[in-house]
Give the backbone structure.
Amino acid sequence: MADPVPRFDRRFDPRWGEAVEIVPDVRRITARNPGIFTFHGTNGFLVGSGDEVVVIDPGPDDPTHVAALLAAIGPARLAAVLLTHSHRDHVGATAALRRATGAPVASGAAAATVDGVDRILADGDRIVAAGVVLEAIATPGHASDHFAFALPEAGLIFTGDHVMAWSTTVVAPPDGSMTDYMASLARIAARPERRLLPAHGPGLGEATSADHLAALAAHRRRRERALLDRLAAVGAARVTDLVEALYADVDRSLHGAAAQSLLAHLEDLVGRGLVAGDGPLAPDTVWRLG
Ligand SMILES: [Zn+2]
């Protein structure tokens, strides 16, 4: 069977600032921070209903968005704030939300640099709050401190930026790691939950998520194969030469991001003993098959 190609789904109505029910006890609020990497904006999620709720990813530092979150929380007690990772578009509103509610904040290790984190998450940690149990799944790759959160009773996983329907994720060293990213894809694929809710764009349903995960992995393996074939053909190359060869059909404005992605592949291939460089993970280094 040929390797599957990802089919990206860009149909999405952000309904900025509105609390949109996804399934009972799970609501999405999309911040108005559209952009090349954020799509229509960052999705925050509210889990639970009635007396207590949990917020996953407060979103960017934007008073309008914080006000929308507080309105959606309403009279309920905010029992916990969970961060998928420490990028600004996910954690910027954390301090304001904490100030307004006093809620404790939990995140991965590097996210401890975010103002006011109370609990550092470890893989497999359970967050029992708002009448539900959420399970923290370490998913480094896009960011070294990235966590996804499973809600087993609803058969779903909040995947942050690790797995998205609308696009591949950015994997850029030194904080990003292709080795970790591929392992984290396998971790999500091995989970029983089949519904995925990313931090940008639409979700993935039970019918499509397994195929999408397989296609995301195949996409990276294809790029890796092309990189190895290119090095075999030319003998030695810098990352800029590899970008020119492998991304010839891609708009030049994206070549900087492509170089980051290839550096992530090269780092992974060096770790596996398949490639060697004459210097550090940098533009001037010349790479050969190992
Ligand atoms: Zn991110």
